[in-house]
Write a structure and sequence with these properties.
The protein is α+β, with helices and mostly antiparallel strands. The chain has a single domain, classed as OB fold (Dihydrolipoamide Acetyltransferase, E2P) (Beta Barrel). The protein has 4 helices and 6 strands, in the order ααβββαβββα. It has a 5-stranded mixed barrel with strand order 1-2-3-5-4. Strand 5 and strand 6 form a beta hairpin. The longest helix is centred in the N-terminal third of the chain and has 21 residues. The termini are far apart.
Length: 142
């Protein structure tokens, strides 16, 4: 009887630890000290837990278009902020956004801010990143 209880406890402990290992530390994956303004056409939306992903076709300085994967908050957090897939995230529309770039050099980043085609602005993450994103937005208006 004792072995079964120990085995069951071990199985529970392992199953609880797995999600913790799967979740990443934002600072290890993204350079949160940088805010990079971008503009692109939305190509795909994945509203999944624990993080949503939006994909944009972004034209680089060389004129080539590259698809970028941008991580954002959970679907519920986006809805509470006023962003809905049906009304706000429309494939084919052009968006301005600010990301903290990936540390590995891939075409990916963490969303700091998003400006919808109608001009509504949403800031995400740490206060410093949102402030920097607002400054970039304001500079863009000049």
């Amino acid at each position: 009887m004792k072995r079964i209880e120990i085995a069951a406890a071990a199985a529970v402990a392992i199953s609880l630890a797995a999600p913790a290992l799967a979740h990443h530390a934002v600072n290890s994956q993204f350079d949160v000290t940088k805010n990079v303004p971008m503009e692109g056409v939305l190509t795909k939306v994945e509203l999944i837990n624990p993080h949503s992903y939006v994909y944009f076709d972004v034209k680089g300085k060389n004129g080539k278009v590259a698809n970028w994967a941008v991580e954002s908050g959970a679907p519920g957090a986006l809805r509470r902020a006023g962003i809905s897939a049906r009304d706000s995230l429309i494939v084919g529309k052009t968006y301005k956004f600010v990301i903290c770039p990936s540390r590995n050099g891939s075409n990916s980043g963490l969303m700091s801010a998003l400006t919808l085609p109608d001009g509504r602005f949403f800031g995400f993450g740490a206060t410093g990143n949102v402030t920097a994103a607002k400054q970039l937005r304001d500079e863009d208006k000049k």
